[in-house]
């Protein structure tokens, strides 16, 4: 009678080595790449069950071609990859409780599961049942500084051909160390080549030609699994992994799981939060933050551009007003300035014949013009755009034209009789000077 793992450990307690070995025993001798993808797939027990039913309905589908046939299914890529290996799905898919327990153990105790695989491989190797042959290459790596356990790697002898082993865990590992927790053994269903019970050793099935369907890997140094990005993207064309690097650490996606986790709703919430955090870290500075940065730059550029246009328009308007004021001031006060007199004296000379009111007005205007002369020069000097230059040029031309017209009118007035009164009022001091 098989013992249930759940009956020996509370949901909030980690599994013991004996319980982990019991769970891992049916798959510990699988090639590393297939093992890694199977461990990923068991974390989605609902979709694993769907893939199992699909494989039963398509008994001849296998390899990359089978994976392409389920491309339209909304399954996690690890689950979809299992249809390439019908022996695995037909044998394990009929054990939904084992699938869920295995997936929960892998999620909750990843390094513990990986260590259990290595313990069992060492036992099978010691019993003489795990060694290189035509189907697999078995190599041993020395223990790392962080672990006293050596690493046993199992790889397909031919990279593109995978043989799925069939074995009886109660035999292949030799004497079992935990009588209370005997290894799980699920004989294949009738009708398949591996349906005959394997009493001793390991039986190897028919080789399955695969290319990109086998994209997983075991990272024994960090006791985790990873993804060969290039192979993964070649077969999962509609769900590619973006970013640089040939290898990517695998992350569980709660969106592909509807059944609860070991630990209940609290564990589900934690898994969802972990996944959301991972997504934010993955896309920070590339999608959302990048979009915000671009948007801010665009808005800032538009705002700055609008302010710059408004400033130029204001500068042009101020320049026009200053030029108009300057033209008026120059037309009244400039001749006398050049002659050494004051602006007020110029206004009195020009307006004397028309009454004191006009004289006072012109005096005020002349004084204003004299006071504004320095600020006018500074204002015009500070205007740098072309429009302001053109406005200033037109202002100078207009002032020059007014001075010319003023000179002509004065000359004409002096010659005519209508200017006699003005000449009589303006000339005596200068005539007297010449007489002396």
UniProtKB/TrEMBL annotation:
A Pfam match: DUF3300
Biased composition (Polar residues): 398-407
Compositionally biased residues, Basic and acidic residues: 239-273, 281-300, 309-320, 387-397
Region (Disordered): 236-436
Source domain of life: Bacteria
Bias (Basic residues): 424-436
InterPro entries, sorted: DUF3300
Protein name per the record: Membrane protein
């Amino acid at each position: 009678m098989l013992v249930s793992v759940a009956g020996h450990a509370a949901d909030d307690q980690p599994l013991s080595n004996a319980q982990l070995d019991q769970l891992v025993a049916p798959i510990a001798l699988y090639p590393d790449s297939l093992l890694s993808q199977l461990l990923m797939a068991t974390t989605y027990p609902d979709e694993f069950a769907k893939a199992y039913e699909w494989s039963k309905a398509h008994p001849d589908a296998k390899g990359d071609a089978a994976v392409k046939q389920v491309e339209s299914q909304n399954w996690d890529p690890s689950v979809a990859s299992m249809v390439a290996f019908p022996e695995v799905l037909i044998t394990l898919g009929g054990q939904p409780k084992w699938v869920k327990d295995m997936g929960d153990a892998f999620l909750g105790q990843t390094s513990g599961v990986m260590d259990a695989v290595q313990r069992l491989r060492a036992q099978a190797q010691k019993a003489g049942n795990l060694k290189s042959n035509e189907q697999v290459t078995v190599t041993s790596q020395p223990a790392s500084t962080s672990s006293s356990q050596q690493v046993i790697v199992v790889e397909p002898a031919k990279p593109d051909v995978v043989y799925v082993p069939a074995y009886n865990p109660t035999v292949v590992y030799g004497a079992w160390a935990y009588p209370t927790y005997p290894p799980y053994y699920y004989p294949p269903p009738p009708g398949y080549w591996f349906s005959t019970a394997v009493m001793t050793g390991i039986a190897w099935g028919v080789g399955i030609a695969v290319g990109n369907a086998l994209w997983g890997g075991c990272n024994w140094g960090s006791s985790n699994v990873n993804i060969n990005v290039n192979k993964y993207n070649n077969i999962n064309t509609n769900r590619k992994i973006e970013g640089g690097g040939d290898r990517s650490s695998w992350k569980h996606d709660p969106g592909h799981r509807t059944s609860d986790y070991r630990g209940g709703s609290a564990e589900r919430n934690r898994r969802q939060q972990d996944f959301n955090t991972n997504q934010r870290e993955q896309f920070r500075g590339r999608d959302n933050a990048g979009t915000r940065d671009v948007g801010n730059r665009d808005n800032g550029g538009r705002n700055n551009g609008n302010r710059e246009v408004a400033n130029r328009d204001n500068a042009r308007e101020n320049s026009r007003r200053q030029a108009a004021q300057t033209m008026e001031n120059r037309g009244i006060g400039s001749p006398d300035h050049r002659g050494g007199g004051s602006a007020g004296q110029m206004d009195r000379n020009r307006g004397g014949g028309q009454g004191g009111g006009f004289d006072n007005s012109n005096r005020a205007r002349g004084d204003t013009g004299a006071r504004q002369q320095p600020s006018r020069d500074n204002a015009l000097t500070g205007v740098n755009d072309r429009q302001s230059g053109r406005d200033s040029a037109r202002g100078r031309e207009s002032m020059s034209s007014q001075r010319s017209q003023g000179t002509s009118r004065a000359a004409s007035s002096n010659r005519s009789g209508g200017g006699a009164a003005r000449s009589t009022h303006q000339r005596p001091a200068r005539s007297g000077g010449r007489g002396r």
